[in-house]
Every structure is written in C-alpha cells, then in structure tokens.
Amino acid sequence: MRQPGEKINRRLPPLLELRRPIPPLWYWGVGLGFIGFFLLAWILVTALGLVPRIFLPSPTAVINELIRQIQSGILWQDASTSLYRIFIGWLISTLVAVPIGILMGNFHFFEGLFEPFIDLVRYMPAVAFVPLTILWLGVGDTQKYAILFIGTFFQEVLLIMDNVKTVPRELIQISSTFGLNKWEILRDVILRAAMPGIWDTFRITLGWAWTYLVVAELVAASVGLGYRIMRAQRFLETETIILGILIIGFMGLITDYIFKISYKKLFRWALQSR
Amino acid sequence: MSLPKLHIENVSKSFDLGREGSLLAIQDVSLAVHPNEFVSLLGPSGCGKSTLLMMTAGLEEITAGRILVDGLEVKGPGLDRGVVFQSYTLFPWLTVAENVRFALKKSKLSTAEQEERVRHHLELVGLSDFASAYPNQLSGGMRQRVAIARALVYRPQILLMDEPFGALDAQTRMLMQELLLEVWQKNRTTVLFVTHDVDEAILLSDRIYVMTARPGRIKAELRVGLPRPRKWLETEGSLQFAQLRHETLRLLHEEVRQGG
After folding, report:
1. Of A21, A62, A178, A273, which is most buried by a Cβ count within 10 Å?
2. Domains held by chain A: number
3. B156: cis peptide before it, omega within 30°?
4. Is residue A92 domain-shared with residue A31, that is, in the same domain?
5. Rounded to 5 degrees, what are φ and ψ at B210?
6. Residues B165 and B74 in one domain
7. Contact A269/B136, CB-based, under 8 Å?
8. Are A177 and B81 a contacting pair at CB < 8 A?
C-alpha cells in the first residue's frame, strides 16, 4: 500500500548504464516487444495487402498450414525424422570430436597432427559436399548424417580443444604433487574441470546441427522438416516454408534450453565466480 | 648441525627465449633448510624466488646444479613435498573434505584412516564446519586454509609455499599468517616459504634468504631470533622486530632500486 502523501515515482529506471542490470520486467518486456514488433509488422503488411500473398502469406495462412500438418500427421513425421537425423549426426560428430579434441588440447603432438587438416576443411562449405556424399554413401540416412557431421565436427573439435586448454595449469601442477601420473590427471582433473565448457560446446554444436538440417535434407529425402521446405519451394507454398523455418527455430530453441537447464543441474559448482 | 632436509646446490636457471637467446633467471644459488626449520626466500618481484620453489617442487626443470631432499636428488614432483600456490588451486567440483581427501589418492591408508586424516587436518585449519561446502562458497582465506590442509594431509617432509597469502586482503593475511604458525607449531614440519613481504618473512621465519634482482642470487642470510610463539600484536611491537625489519628493508631496497 502506498502511504498517503508519498510521491509516485514516474521516472524511468536507469536503462542504459554501463553493465548495470535493468529491472526484469524491462528486460523481458523489451525482448518480447521486439519479437512482437515483427509479428505486428507481419500482420499489418499482409492484412493491408501491401505484399502479394505468394511472397509473404498472412499469419493466419501459416497457422492454418500448421493445423493441416498436425491433423494429417505430416508434422509429427517430419519433426521426429529430422530430430532423429540431427541427433544421430550430431552424436557421431561428438563421439569423434570429444576424444580428438581432448588429445589436441593436452598433447602438442596431436594438435600439430590434426590442426592444419581441420583448419583446411572447416571452411569448406558443407552444402558443396552434398553431391559427393550422395555419390559415396547413396541416398539413405547415412548421407544425411555425413552432411551434419561435416557441418558440425570440424568446428566442434576445435571448441573442445579450447575447453580443455582453459583448465588452469596450476590445477594440473598441484595434482602432480599428489603423485598422480599424466593419465590420472587427464581423467580425474582435466576432464572434470573441462566438463562444463564441453557441455556448453554440446549445446552450441547441436544448435549448428539444426541449421544444417535443410542442407542435409536438400536432396534425396522424402520426409523431414528440411525436405518439406525444399518441396514447398518448388510449388511456391510460401506458408509451408515459413512454418518449416519457424518449427526448426523452435525445436532448436528447445534443445538449447534442455542443455542450459541440465548445465545448471549438473555443474552447480561452476556457476558462481571462483 | 644435523643433515639438511633440503639442500639446493649451485642451482642456475635460464629460460630459452628462442631467437632472442636466453634469459638467466637464477644464478648459482646454494642454500640449506634444516629439519623443522621455517625458511623464507625474500626478494623483489622477478628475482626467480618462485622459480626456485617450483624447481624444488619438481615442477620446473633445473638448468644447472641440483636439489636434494633428504639426500635424494629431485627429479620431479613427489609426495615428500607438499605445495601451496598463490592462486586458488582447489578442485571446484569437490567439497572441502573431498579436496583434502584427493591428495590421499596414492596413499595406502585404509578408508577409515583416510577419513580420520582428513578430519584431523580440517580441524587443524579450523574448517571442520565447512567439510561439505564447495570452494565457490568459501572466502579466499578459507580456500587457502583448505589448500594448506590438503598439502599437509599426506605428511610431506617439506612444505613449499609460493606467496600463499599474496591474493588475500591485509586483515585476512595477518590471520592466515598466525594460523600458519599455529599449524606449524602443532605439526612440526620443514617449510620453505616464498614472499616479497618483509614483515611476513620476519614474523614466520627462523631464517630469511634475501635474493638479488635478476639474475637471482643469494644476497644475504638473516637469522630471526624472535621468541616463539609469535603473534602479530606482541612480535611486531618489539625493538628486535623493528631492527630486523629495518635491516631487511635496507637490503631489499638496494635490489628494488637496481631492478626497478
């Protein structure tokens, strides 16, 4: 309750001070407002008929498409297939990247061995490998995994190498004074200390895998979120394209969140400043 | 005089700078630390005192000369030496008790004996109530107390300390110095302590080696005859302390002026 005679503070809180937190209401408000702005612009532009429907369909058309896809079961089929492909492609990449990244981060020999090759390959566009992978692996899911692998692995392995390198030297030195040999230090100290960083790398690289989905399903697919977009392009079904993009975005957001929440549960010791 | 616990014999250290040749950090240093003695290495920053400690710990290679612990040449890190760094080196994913216990990984003690050792050493540094806390819940002083308990828990022959209180605020540092003396009094062990703080060196040590600016050499050896047990308030006010302080500062200043 406001006391009688108390002045109502109508002044804005300080919003643009260097590094100063702003009230949560403002923080979330401006973020949602920014999205809302685009939504509103979309509604207005389409409702006023400023843009032909074939370039930009109305939100209603996209929602109708969503309902149609849910009812016909297409959405479930596409989403589950794509999720499975992404997970397997990312998992293969991760299973290879983790041991190699750890070796590279700890042994100069392996850094020298792998880094020039990885630096060379990682700027090659994954999309350019589509014809080659089809030639080599056929048109099945293996080819999709290969594209996701090419898109993810070469960045992931370097990130994991960096995660491992951030473990402080003193932590390794002190462990050796307790009589641990290098393999014990690697397992009991370096890996443990690097785990939160590696977990965050998993989150980031799984996000990249989502962005490579369309490339992976570009050719020789008959189901999947990326495939649905490519097919809609052929028939100029713009609302299907927009719906597909939005769904990929949302699913990426959800997997990102799962990693963020599990990070907080798993690595509470790493949360506060040291 | 008894056989020294630690013997540093004509040790030199140079760092390879590649194209620019090499940098002589330590030049022909010899010193001895006797059993249960508390000895400080005092010197201006960059004089190589930490490097000397790291070589003693077996964490840095020796360019020339040798270091002997109980007559045996140091070839690498070992359980006969316990180390405390200036920076925080606790494992953040382990609790206080688990951190101390970690140092017993290679010990042949039974689980019950290990538990008892950990309990005893946490009590020694006054952290029994924080056994299940995580490092990120502790203050800087408490973290260093855990580090000391962890370095003592496997009963090394020598405790090597590299400016362990350098990152702490002035009040906490004084408390920690007194705590260290108490621990050392109860747990008689040999200590080699690196610092650039004159007062700290005098309060703690039996002897002080003052080092020169780079390349580090032994400039002087001072005997601190102050009676023990020492406490800041009593010790710092004595005439003897003031005289020692003056003498040490004078020696150190010559070097700082030269180096700076």
Report:
1. A178
2. 2
3. no
4. no
5. -90, 130
6. yes
7. yes
8. yes
Which DSSP category does B35 fall into?
T
Note whether residue A9 is domain-resident.
Answer: no
Looking at residue A2, what is its pLDDT? 53
Residues A245 and A180 occupy one common structural domain: yes
Residue B41's domain comprises: 6-80+158-259
My answer on whether A186 and A209 are in the same domain is yes
Alpha helices in chain B (DSSP H): 49-57, 96-102, 111-124, 140-152, 170-186, 198-204, 232-236, 239-259
Same domain, B205 and B252: yes
- The answer on A159 and A64 residing in a single domain is yes
Three-state SS across B191-214? EEEEECCHHHHHHHCCEEEEECCC
What is the C-alpha to C-alpha distance for residues B1 and A13, in angstroms, rounded to an integer? 73
Q: Does A173 contact B83 at a Cβ distance shorter than 8 Å?
A: yes
* Secondary structure (3-state) at A243: helix
Residue A232: closest CA among A88, A41, A68, A90? A68
Q: Which domain holds residue A252?
A: 59-270
Verify that A31 and A65 share a domain, yes or no.
Answer: no
Q: Which residue has the higher pLDDT, B45 or A247?
A: A247
Q: Give me the residues of B, 129-188, that contact A with CB < 8 A.
A: 134-137, 151, 154
How many A×B Cβ pairs under 8 Å? 69
How many other β-carbons are positioned within 10 Å of the β-carbon of residue B102? 20
Q: B93 and A192: CB-CB below 8 Å?
A: yes
Same domain, A73 and A175: yes
Q: How far apart are CA B6 and CA A163, in angstroms?
A: 39
∠ CA A69-A73-A74, rounded to 5°? 60
Within-domain flag for A82: yes
CB B14 within 8 A of CB B48: no
Q: Which two tokens stand for residue B95?
A: 């609790």
Per residue in A16-66, pLDDT (tens digit) is 999 899 999 999 999 999 999 999 999 999 999 999 988 999 999 999 999
CB nearest A173 (choices: B59, B105, B137): B59
